[in-house]
Amino acid sequence: MRPVFLFPRATIIDCGASRTTMAVFSGGRTGLMRLERFATETHASEPGSEGRWLEKTSDALHALRAKIEPAGPVTVVLPPQVTLMKQFSTPRVKAAKRDKIINFESQQSIPYPLADVVWDRLIASESALAFNVLLCAAKREAIEPLCAALAAAGLTPTVLRPSVQALVSGFRETQARQDSAVPTLLINLGARSTTLVLLEKTGFQARSLALAGVGDGAPAGQLLANRLVQEITRTLVHFHQPSAGESSLRVMLTGGGARLPGLAARLATQLAMPVILFDALSAIEFGSEAAEFKRDEHQSTFAEVVGAAALQLRTKQAGLNLLPLQLRQQAGRRRLRPWLAVAAGLAVAALVPQIAHQRGVSASAYQQNTALEHELRPLRIEAARNLEKRQRLTEMQLQQEAGRKITAAQTGWG
Question: Rounded to an integer, what distance in angstroms lies between the CA atom of residue 146 and that of residue 167?
Fold first, then answer.
């Protein structure tokens, strides 16, 4: 059995409209993901005031960072109010042509200059004739200040995940151990918006609307139920599904508004289909530091957190990432630094035996050279003496020859 520290870990930060949650997960020993530690900061939601939301989120990030030490890659879940979402279909063609069509359609669908947004897309579902593409985008004026707030709190995200993909992932992680064959309409009732996701075997379809499901901006009980029934009907028509009561569809509620008293019962009566609360916590186990986790309090608000952790720890799929390219590259370089240090250390370690061997060879050669030098020293001295004698002999011979020539010159007159 592997030690706990060898299991992969991930830090998830859910930046909701009225709460900010930080949670650290690990792979766990039992097959379930393990919640190691978590903390949540709540704040009032103020519709239409993105500046105030960013300020409160920034304060929450600093408070959470003081409570929790992150571990592993950091994923941030973006709330629906800062992202744009659209789906469109493309014909089934070869991959290269399909990518060109998707890129063209995506650029045509974004209502802002491309330089002002960060966008990404994925194939959400497919049929025999077409692909259904989910396009998500966020304005840089919302994303870049949030990234700056994360950096100021000492957090470096590798992924900015739209909440809809985290929600879908949370559902799939939970339903992997249950009956996933039943088509499900998952409704996330947040403080600023409501997201409806239709999940089937072939994929999913989603839409988001500016309907608060909880908080001061939400309609009262029966009014909220009536509005939701209208939106559910519109959604099923939009997704080309049979109307409520005419299919095997089931409805699941999650988000802060899911636990409003009587809401599930009202919807079940008006829709004539089962409406239940979605429990993402059934997909995780709890570590010792998360012992104070209050299941009833967080059951309806942890779906995106669990889903984002599953995307990181389970599938490791690229998915949607709205982190600006420059920050993505910086995060990649930061992740590489420890590995580069390890690689450099391994390279040095690999050279140590060779260096030691070369040092041994050098020491042996030095000893041999020293011994040889000791033996050659007297011979070199003797050779120097002999050279000196030969030089003297040569000089004497030259002097003798010069004297002979002088004598011959003096006596050679006729």
Answer: 21
